[in-house]
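Hi team,

Filling in the usual template for the complex we talked about on Friday. All components are listed, including any nucleic acid strands or ligand strings, so the model treats them as one assembly.

SUBMITTER: L.P.
PURPOSE: interface mapping
COMPONENTS: two
RESIDUES: 531
SEQUENCES:
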Amino acid sequence: MNEIVQVGELDKYFGPLHVLKNLSLMVQKAEVICIIGRSGSGKSTFLRCINFLEQPDYGWIEVDGLRVPAQGSGRDYRTLIHNLRLKTGMVFQSFNLFPHKTALENVMEGPLTVKQMDKTAARQLGLFYLDKVGLVHKRDEYPSRLSGGQQQRVAIARALAMEPQVMLFDEPTSALDPELIGEVLGVMQKLVQEGMTMLTVTHEMGFAREFAHRIVYMDEGHFVEIGPPKQIFDAPQDERTQLFMNAFSRFERPGNGG
Amino acid sequence: MPANRAAIPWRDFPWWLVVIILFLVLMALTLISDPNYNRAFTFIIGEPRSGTGTGITALVGKGLTVTVYTTLVAYVIALVIGLIAGLGRVSQNFVVRNIAITYIEFVRGVPTLVLIFTLALVVIPAAAQGLGLNLQSIPDNTRAILALAIIYGAYMAEIFRAGIESIPKGQMEAARSVGMTASQGMIYIILPQAIRNVLPALWNDFIAMLKDSSLVSVLAVRDITQMARLYAGSSFRFRETYLVLTFLYLSMTLILSLVLRLIERRTRIGGER
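RESULT (copied from the run log):
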């Protein structure tokens, strides 16, 4: 069994609003999943449920053999969620770097406080991951002195430093100026090639087409269609997927469009 | 930007500072030259370590030392109370949160002078009795300090709460996503940023506390206000006494608020994101 992430019959409500409707998904090790869909379709909420930044109402999440039910209480349940989070790394749309810490300190923070690693080892680890995202030379800079693209790369290094089993990307390039998107996608591409399991909510259709093994199209809290990029982009089965892809292709590929 | 500097209109010049400093300089000159003012001044600031009281009062003497000591100690205690109450105020636990809100609203709803009486003469003696302490062993000064700290703790709690709430939600999410517990996220990520944001407000409360320390004079604590009342009462030199007292408070608060401006400038530069 190579399934590293499993989501079972997940439901989530915001008050009376039913935002995730009976979602199930199995993700293989080293698989890259891109989740696409209109804003408000629930794709970010789904991703945030995987590490319990949002608490689902029904169903369960399993990462690397650790199964956590949607609901629970008490110390044991909190430990379960904590352990699940240690197996996942998350990258946010708005970076959320710690502004009072330098780039290197941002990356070292998790290993230091959560894993109680000693300072020298954490520093070594921090430098290793800053190097991986190509920002070792910025190690002593504060986030306010970094460009958006650099901040997001530090954020990726920060998540990687906890050595997670799976990386969750929540629209990692949506807050970036167009000329800065490439450097972040470049780092993500490197992770794909290294065999990192990734779930990415994105509007970057180029990235999805090229690197995703499977694409999930979400609409109104449903998984409307799941399939390889070829299917989703070139021969969508569901009418809603077709409409969405048409809207995109009109801008993305004016020559080939309908 | 030399062009900009030259363009500063005369309106931007800190005239208020000139007026206040003028008053302070005139008062200082009068203090030196006029023996009536000089006597009032010497009596009010008192001599350190010459007090005849018991306990802490004997240690800190009277006059200026009492005012400074009361302010400093009460402020530090108030910081601790304020931080705890502020954290309670934003707690997810509704029992903790409601205890914190009750305390804060209670204090904020009663005049400071009234609370000084109530806390020092009713609440603290009752608490001391409850703990089995001998009331005689708690000097007036200590009660006054505790009362001030409890009052200011409530105001500081609101400052800390505002500071914590000013930090974007994403910071705690990022902390949780790297595996921190809620309290680790609070201690290592939220609080350092929050406290930096509220430094000017906290310092402002220090200035306010220096002024409100004058209220402890109603408990016969011999701070500069009480010393002034004693002197005026026996010499009937009200004008000299209270001008000197005004001079003392104003010169202290002026220095402190100039420091505040420095802090504000530094946090503004350092705080950009």
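MY TAKE: Chain A is about 40% helix and 25% strand. Strands of chain A lie at 3-14, 17-28, 32-37, 58-63, 66-69, 88-91, 166-170, 197-201, 214-219, 222-227.

Thanks, L.
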